[in-house]
C-alpha cells in the first residue's frame, strides 16, 4: 500500500514539475516573441524575469505555483550550457596556442574581482549593519 | 540482421545526434551523483562533465552540427532558466530591503571590476581579438553572458568556455583568498563569490553557509541583469 502511495506521490511530483517547466517555457517563448515584435533592446528572457517578478510581487500567482520548476531550472543550469562549451573543439588551435595566456588572464581577472568586491562589500556591510542596529534601537526607544 | 539495423541506426546521423544528447545528459547527472559522494573539485560536474563529453565527442569524431541537432534544445532551456531567477529575488526581498546599499555597491563593484580587469589584462597579455572580446562578460552567469556577449562582439561558444573556466577558478581560489584578505562577514564572502564566479561561486557559497549561498545567487542575478541591460553602453566604453 505504502509502495503504491509512494509511486503516486512520485508521479504527482513529476507531473507538477513538468507542467511548471512547461509554463516557464511558454512564458519565455511569449516574451521572446514580444521582444522580437517590438524590437526591444531588452532581451525576452529579462522581460520574462520582470513579468514573473511582477506577478509574484503583486500576489497574482502564489509562490509554490512556480517553486518546483524554478528550483529545477536553476539547479540544472550547468546542463544547459554544456553544449556551447563542447563546440570549442572548433577553436582547438586557439586554445593550444594561447592556453597559458588565457589561463593567466582568467586567474588574474578572477582574483581581482573577488579581491575588489570582497573588500568593498566587507566594509559597506559593517557600516550598513551598524546603521540598521541604530535604526532598530531608535524604533525601540520610540516604542518604549 | 536486427543487429546490423541497430548498428546502422546508431551510426546514422539521427542516431549519433540522439547518442550525443543522451551522452550529455548522462555525463552531467553521473558527475553530479559522483560529486555528491566524493567532494573533490575535479569531480565537480562543472569540471568533469564538459571534459568527459568533449573528449568523447572529439575521439568518436561526432561532427559538431550532428552534436547540436538535439542538444541545442538543452541550450534553449537557458531562457526559461533566466526567468526562473525571479523566484529567488522575490523570496529574499527581506534581505534585499535590509541591505540595499551593500548589495547595490557589491553589484556595481563586481560588474565593473569584471569588465575593467579583463579590459586591462588583455592590453598586456597577447590574445586574439575574438577571445579578448569574449572575455569581457566572463564573470557573469551564462544565460546573461551569452545574451550580452554579442554587444561586445564576442563569440558565444568562446564566451561559454571562458565563463565556465572562470567559475572553476573562482571555486578554487576563494578560500585561500578570503583567509588572506580577512573577509569574514557572510555578505562579503557571498557577494565576492557571486560576483567573480557566478553559478559555480553560488554553489561554493552554499557549501560555506546558507546566507552566503543566498547572497551569492542574488549578486549573480543582479550583475547578470545589469550586464545585459548595460551591454550596449559598456560596449561603447570598452571596445
Overall pLDDT confidence of chain B: 89
Principal-axes shape call of chain A: extended
Q: Measured on Cα atoms, how large is the radius of gyration of chain B?
A: 20 Å
| Principal-axes shape call of chain B | globular
Main sheet properties of chain B: none
Beta content of chain A: under 5%
Helical amount of chain A = over 70%
Secondary-structure-based class of chain A equals mainly alpha
State the end-to-end CA separation of chain B. 60 Å
The largest pleated sheet of chain A is described as: none
Proportion of β residues of chain B? Answer: under 5%
Question: What would you say about this model in short?
Answer:
The complex is a heterodimer of chains A (144) and B (239). Chain A is an all-alpha fold and 144 residues long. Chain A is 83% helix and 0% strand.
Labels describing this entry:
heterodimer; A: 144 residues; mainly alpha; 2 domains; 6 helices; extended; B: mainly alpha; 13 helices; globular
Topology summary:
The complex is a heterodimer of chains A (144) and B (239).
Chain A: H1 2-37, H2 44-57, H3 67-75, H4 77-80, H5 82-86, H6 92-143
Helix pairs in contact in A: 1-2, 1-3
Chain B: H1 2-11, H2 13-37, H3 45-59, H4 64-76, H5 78-84, H6 86-91, H7 93-98, H8 100-124, H9 129-134, H10 142-148, H11 156-181, H12 186-208, H13 210-238
Helix pairs in contact in B: 1-2, 2-3, 2-4, 8-12, 8-13, 10-11, 10-13, 11-12, 12-13
Amino acid at each position: 500500500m505504502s509502495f503504491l502511495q509512494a509511486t503516486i506521490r512520485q508521479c504527482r511530483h513529476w507531473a507538477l514539475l513538468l507542467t511548471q517547466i512547461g509554463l516557464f517555457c511558454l512564458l519565455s517563448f511569449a516574451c521572446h516573441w514580444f521582444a522580437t515584435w517590438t524590437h526591444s533592446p531588452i532581451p525576452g528572457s529579462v522581460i520574462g524575469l520582470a513579468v514573473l517578478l511582477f506577478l509574484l510581487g503583486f500576489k497574482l500567482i502564489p509562490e509554490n505555483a512556480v517553486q518546483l520548476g524554478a528550483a529545477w531550472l536553476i539547479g540544472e543550469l550547468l546542463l544547459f550550457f554544456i553544449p556551447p562549451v563542447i563546440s570549442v573543439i572548433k577553436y582547438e588551435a586557439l586554445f593550444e596556442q594561447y592556453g597559458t595566456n588565457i589561463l593567466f588572464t582568467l586567474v588574474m581577472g578572477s582574483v581581482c574581482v573577488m579581491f575588489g568586491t570582497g573588500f568593498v562589500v566587507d566594509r559597506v556591510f559593517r557600516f550598513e549593519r551598524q546603521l540598521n542596529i541604530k535604526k532598530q534601537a531608535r524604533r525601540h526607544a520610540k516604542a518604549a | 540482421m536486427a543487429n546490423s539495423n541497430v548498428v546502422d541506426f546508431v551510426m546514422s546521423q539521427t542516431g549519433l545526434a540522439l547518442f550525443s544528447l543522451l551522452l550529455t545528459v548522462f555525463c552531467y547527472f553521473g558527475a553530479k551523483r559522483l560529486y555528491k559522494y566524493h567532494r573533490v573539485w575535479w569531480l565537480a560536474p562543472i569540471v568533469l562533465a564538459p571534459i568527459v563529453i568533449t573528449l568523447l565527442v572529439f575521439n568518436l569524431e561526432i561532427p559538431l552540427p550532428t552534436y547540436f541537432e538535439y542538444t541545442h534544445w538543452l541550450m534553449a532551456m537557458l531562457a526559461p532558466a533566466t526567468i526562473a531567477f525571479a523566484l529567488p529575488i522575490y523570496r529574499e526581498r527581506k534581505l534585499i530591503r535590509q541591505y540595499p546599499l551593500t548589495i547595490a555597491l557589491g553589484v556595481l563593484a563586481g560588474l565593473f571590476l569584471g569588465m575593467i580587469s579583463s579590459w586591462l589584462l588583455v592590453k598586456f597579455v597577447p590574445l586574439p581579438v575574438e577571445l579578448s572580446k569574449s572575455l569581457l562578460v566572463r564573470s557573469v552567469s551564462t544565460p546573461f553572458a551569452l545574451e550580452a556577449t554579442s554587444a561586445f562582439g564576442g563569440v558565444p561558444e568562446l564566451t561559454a568556455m571562458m565563463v565556465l573556466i572562470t567559475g572553476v577558478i573562482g571555486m578554487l581560489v576563494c578560500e585561500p583568498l578570503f583567509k588572506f584578505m580577512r573577509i569574514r562577514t557572510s555578505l562579503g564572502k557571498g557577494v565576492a563569490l557571486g560576483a567573480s564566479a557566478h553559478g559555480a561561486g553560488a554553489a561554493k557559497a552554499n557549501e560555506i553557509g546558507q546566507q552566503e549561498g543566498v547572497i551569492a545567487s542574488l549578486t549573480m542575478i543582479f550583475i547578470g541583469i545589469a550586464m545585459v541591460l548595460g551591454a550596449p553602453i559598456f560596449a561603447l566604453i570598452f571596445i
